[in-house]
Amino acid sequence: MRGSVGVIVGETSPLQFKFMIHGAVGRGDYVKVRGDGRSWILAQVEEIRRSNTAYSLAHMERGCTQTCREWVVADARVIGVPSDGRIRSPAMPPRPGEEVFAADEKMIAAALGLSKGDMYIGILKGHDLRVELDANTLVQKHCSVLAKTGSGKSYTAAVILEELLDKGVALLVIDTHGEYGSMRYPNRDGDFNRFRVKPKGYNITVYTPANLAINPRADRPFRFDGLNLSARDIARMLPDDPTNGSVALLYEAIAALRSERESYDLEDIIKQVEKANSKSKWTLIGQLEQLLEMGLFSGEPTRPEELLQRGHASVIDMTGVPQEMQPMIVAKLLTDLFEARKLGRVCPGMVVIEEAHNYIPERGTGRAASTSIIRTIAAEGRKFGMGLMIISQRPARVDKNVLSQCNTQIIMRVTNPNDLKALSKGLEGMSTELEEEIKRLPPGTAMIVSNEIERPIVVNIRPRRSKHGGVSTPIVMTDHPVKGPVPRREPQKGPGLFLRKVLGPRGA
């Protein structure tokens, strides 16, 4: 056993103790101490304080100049006593005077449950210890990735997606900014040796609800079935909330079409609404025509069976789609997909939603047509084999009901007070110390909170195997010299300038 790093001082409890440091130990490190039953108690250093009475204010005011011994004291939070693959709380606190030792990695892994999973996320901060989460638990009980802009949330989310694809999980990704199509290419930039990963590309298909000319990165257009739409389907897709009168007009128009023919499309519905004897029809016609112009409906729609395939990610790239239309598209897409899953027409899988605050806004911060179906998936998805991952830089603006359903929360740096408050409400055991830790997390480092792990842990996220597509575009170009001002051209004077430009000089 390595030498001790300190000795317990002062009052102790089964939850915490203090120890005087005389070895190499830092904030966040794991330590162990003997309990009354001589079993090892595992604890984590939460805070370290340094003092010297010779330099205390009272001492200096008395004019004392003698030197005193410097004290370095650590506050340690008890995790528990590892026993038979489980962790239990100690019945009695450790004794003052007991020596404190650095915990070995085998004990840490066993106590925290880091080796039970099959998804390699990264390395425990301060240790060369792999952190592995359980894929089934993460998918079935949902997951969230939360961080401020620039902290690496999309990068970390892609690391999770890589692991899920390697396990054969079917994925559907709502990609607001076109960041995930790059997963088809291997990564060429990363500390692969330290984290022991190899670059590779993945089976990705990118769909666009917009035109391929607008989004040339996409592989295929994404389209809904345009035949025999119901009034409910159309009302859910309208850019603005339809009035009761508009919905009634829709029902009447569709009922008339169904009585006359076997099939109809959106253009037929518009023509039928035009026949109505109602002043409110013009607002509805304008909304329907806007929907028609989007080109989202087709006789050759994208089938749910095509979108969910084992070991494959279907990316719905929203680039070029008006922001107000995006929640409507997601609402119908997820409704169709969830119904197909309940009927067993598609395989189990996971829905991943980037910029989740746009699709499931918290009450009071906005409204979105997609909120209802995402709430349904969060509440009932486990029963039907459909998991959910939400990604956002604004936790305070994400529907708290959905956020609370996420059993695994991966939190990177967050500094906004409202977002920290939302995290505190949504996480069990969130302390002031953990809040401060979240505010100080460097890029590429995440706190993982899960019922499968005994307490929150800080992890250095491994490099992606696939290429990262969320790189920020540089604004300041240091290698491009700034051009001087464009010289002003004096206007030419004299009669007939316009005619000379058109007809040429005289005599030509």
Automatic annotation (TrEMBL):
Q: Report what the protein is called.
A: Uncharacterized protein
Matching entries from Gene3D superfamilies are given as: P-loop containing nucleotide triphosphate hydrolases
Where would I find the Helicase HerA central domain in this sequence? 120-335
- Which SUPFAM superfamilies does the annotation name? P-loop containing nucleoside triphosphate hydrolases
Read off the InterPro entries from this record: HerA-like, HerA_barrel_dom, HerA_central, P-loop_NTPase
**Record PANTHER family:** HELICASE MJ1565-RELATED (PTHR42957)
Q: Which domain of life is it from?
A: Archaea
* Chain ranges of the Helicase HerA barrel domain: 5-52
Family stated for the protein in its record: Belongs to the HerA family.
Q: Where is this region: Disordered?
A: 468-496
Q: Which reaction is this enzyme known to catalyze?
A: ATP + H2O = ADP + phosphate + H(+); Couples ATP hydrolysis with the unwinding of duplex DNA by translocating in the 3'-5' direction
The record's Pfam families line, in alphabetical order, gives:
DUF87 (PF01935), HAS-barrel (PF09378)
